[in-house]
Amino acid sequence: MDTRTLSTLLENYCHITNIHYYDETDSTNLRAKQYVQENDGTSACSPCLFVSEVQTAGRGRLGRSWESPPNEGIWMSFLCKPNLPPNQISGVTILAGLAVAKTINSFALKQSIHNLYAEIKWPNDIVINKKKVCGILTELIGNTSYVVCGIGVNVNSLSFPENLFQKATSLLKESGVVWNREKLIAVIIKNLSDYINSYEKSGDLDFILYDYNKLLVSMDKEVVLIGGTNINEKNSDENIYISKGIDKTGALIIEDSKGNRQTVSTGEVSVRGINGYV
Ligand code: BT5
After folding, report:
1. pLDDT tens, 92-142?
2. pTM here?
3. Is 213 near ligand 1, meaning CB less than 6 Å away?
4. CA angle (103, 105, 110) in 5-degree steps
5. Residues 6+ positions from 86 with CB-CB distance below 8 Å
């Protein structure tokens, strides 16, 4: 990664000058948390960005791990202090997903790559051709109002460990061309910080609903809920719903076979396509 170029781009695009680069670290989300603790939540803390070439203990949700090999991906955490109540912080994941998907698609268009289209798998994955290219982990830091939004994108990876081979992909694998990580980072963070500003002003996600639902991979398709209370984990009729997109709180609207609608929130359940991951 060319850190000089990235610093210039971030300053020009998003006025972010507080950037922490690591050749190697355990997890950029952990580095952001530590930074907030060490700086005692002073205004020096945000907005800032933590970027590493490799993560030795990349983290997913619910204690899962995130594969972060050297020099091939974007492993970064955006630290900010949004003026939002804690129950609206999950909206940042929704915004980050949209920021990543839109950035990938606009770069593809600019590079005349026509066979690549990134879609969102609610709530925190970006997929291309049904395989995961990006995962997002948003966390509220301790008792503070700081939020760290960790974003992992497989950019120029050519291979994956056996356990991920079927379900992971990279921008290079899907397009056949090498992508510029510095530019991708700068545009993702620019889009994300603009969205967060708008979210703070409006207090809900109405302003992105149309764009988000257009990119939602499950839109108007059958989905199965996994986890949560009173939810049958099998593909039985009573557990199959039609996904109707997100509402302005970021919850997913699902419809049962009788046409009754309900919403499910981030963290409550997982949603899968009826034939697997998407
Ligand atoms: C996520 O969790 O997808 C959130 C991933 C967030 C990673 C970023 S990188 C920068 C920052 N620092 C961190 O330590 N984390 C954040 P989840 O929905 O729980 O998905 C985790 C699952 O995705 C794993 O159990 C694997 O099945 C799969 N997986 C792991 N590594 C992957 C990769 N590189 N590409 C695609 N899938 C992967």
Report:
1. 999 999 999 999 999 999 999 988 999 999 999 999 999 999 999 999 998
2. 0.95
3. no
4. 95
5. 140, 145
- State pLDDT tens for residues 235-252: 555 688 999 999 999 999
Rg (CA), the chain: 18
Q: Which is nearest to 134 in space by CA: 119, 148, 147?
A: 119
Ligand 1 mutation target, pool 1, 66, 171, most atoms within 8 A of CB: 66
198 vs 240 pLDDT, higher one: 198
Q: Supply the DSSP string of 2-34, one letter for each residue.
A: -HHHHHHHHHHHH----EEEESSBS-HHHHHHH
CA of 66 to the centre of ligand 1 (A): 4
Instruction: Give percent above pLDDT 70 in the chain.
Output: 92
Collapsed DSSP state (helix, strand, coil) of residue 1: coil
The residue type of 75 is W
